[in-house]
Amino acid sequence: MTMPSLSVNGTRANAVAVPSGGVVAVVAPFGSGKHYREEILHRGWQCVAVSPADGMLPPLYRGSLDPTGYQHVVTHDGDLESTAHTLRALRVTAVVAGTEIGVALTEQLAHRLGLPGNDPRTSHLRRDKGAMAAALARAGLDGPRSLSTDRLQDALSWTQSLPDVVDFVLKPADSAGSDGVIFCSGLDEINTAWKRLHQVPNAMGGENGHLVLQERLRGSQYVVNSVSVTDVRGAARHTITECWADRRTPGTHLYDRLDLLHRTRLVPRVLTDYTVRALDALGVGHGPAHTEVMYVPGRGPVLIETGARPEGTYDPHSMREATGSDHIRDAVHAVVTGKPRRLAADRPRATVAKISLIAPCDGVLDPVFVDRLLNLPTVHGHVGSLVPGGRVKRTVDLLTSPGRLTLAAENPREIDHDHALIRTMENSGLYLGGPR
Predict the structure, then answer these.
(1) Quick one: average pLDDT of 18-29?
(2) What are the residues whose beta carbons fall under 8 Å from the beta carbon of 268, sequence distance 6 or more?
(3) What is residue 127's DSSP assignment?
(4) Which of 90, 171, 247, 342 ranks highest by number of CB atoms within 10 Å?
């Protein structure tokens, strides 16, 4: 059978016959999104990549797309109808977001193609942190007191209207990975932070025209991963797949370690109830979501932010080995079956932690230390190149971390031991040119 001709990356190509399973388009398949391809192909479906043109990509992602294994790589040049037409010709049956910059485009394309997806009219609720907080308030859920504005004077006036709040957080409205997050106290510090961020391009390609100022929440921080499906009656069903205790380095927003929690314990059950209601308020009815929540003493769970895409800096292979499950596999299962995946057990097979590397300065990865690091007994995998001799930048947020290690063991003390060893290595020579 002759298939229709179409334009892909500026060339003519012939669409191939669709396999019995279908075809999934992964929009912005960078970071964790690159792992979709393997799982989709494993399920017997085909996979198409949709990438904004290089000039539309933030520098973080330019040149990082590996085309191997994709049926086609479709370049989106800003013409939504043209890209939808190409995907229609490729017989695409599902569209998913690979990373944060693909969320809005995913929703628009799914809508144009008549495929399952979140409502593109409310995409801002899933991208703009100020809009998230406002949506929670309308739904009667606790969220951080927030102001989204493009005027410094409005920000300063708003802080003075909250005499009970001493500390604030200024952040981009639409970035990720703690990019541009600044803690500040008092008008002078807010003024300085504003001038540092306002109208400066952020890591996700936004221009920081509007900034979000919020009260700084104090408490225990958690990460909640989920996968959502919407049934034929339009009711969303959310499955919480992972709950993590999120430890940051004291006094900063630098990631230290995440510890996987048993879903049957009290804190994960409380977080699950809150997160499900927050996802409803934000219009998440389809696909994976990555939610950060602060448990504030005297208040309970308070949303920090939600991303309608898989968790970033994520190693599905080591997660699968340790627990039998991972966020990507769960998301693909929902695409393939239209149903959430039944979780294998009420508790993980092992104690699992993820340790983010923190480079104190620019440097070079020492080959001997890298070998020791990757061969620690509890290390099951990592994200980040960690190539001996590779250059690293001083860590200021998750996006500038040299990498993240997944640790698993039957005995949690083994993980604590190797976590301490990792920090010792960082301070004694892992980064050549750093402290000795």
Answers:
(1) 84
(2) 240, 243, 261, 262
(3) T
(4) 171
pTM of the entire structure? 0.90
Which pair of tokens denotes residue 2?
């002759």
Number of helices and strands in the chain (H, E): 11, 21
Q: In whole angstroms, give the CA distance from residue 301 to residue 289.
A: 17
Contacts of residue 31, defined as CB under 8 A and 6 or more positions apart, other chains included, come to 61, 98, 99, 312, 313, 314
Burial group, residue 83, by CB count within 10 angstroms (0-12, 13-18, 19+)? buried
Whether pLDDT at 15 is above 50: no
Q: Are 28 and 15 in contact (CB under 8 A)?
A: no
Place of tokens 């909250």: 162
Structure tokens of 26?
Answer: 């992964």
Strands (E), 284-419: 287-296, 300-307, 351-356, 363-365, 379-383, 391-392, 404-409
- d(CA 66, CA 34) in angstroms, rounded, equals 8
| Burial class of residue 258 (count of CB atoms within 10 Å of its CB; 0-12, 13-18, 19+) | buried
Give yes or no for residue 1 having a pLDDT over 60. no
- Return the SS3 of 432: strand
CA–CA–CA angle 228, 242, 146 (5° rounding): 75
CA distances from 277 to 37, 240, 261, 271, 309 (A): 31, 12, 20, 10, 18
| Residue found by looking up tokens 């409502």 in the block | 119
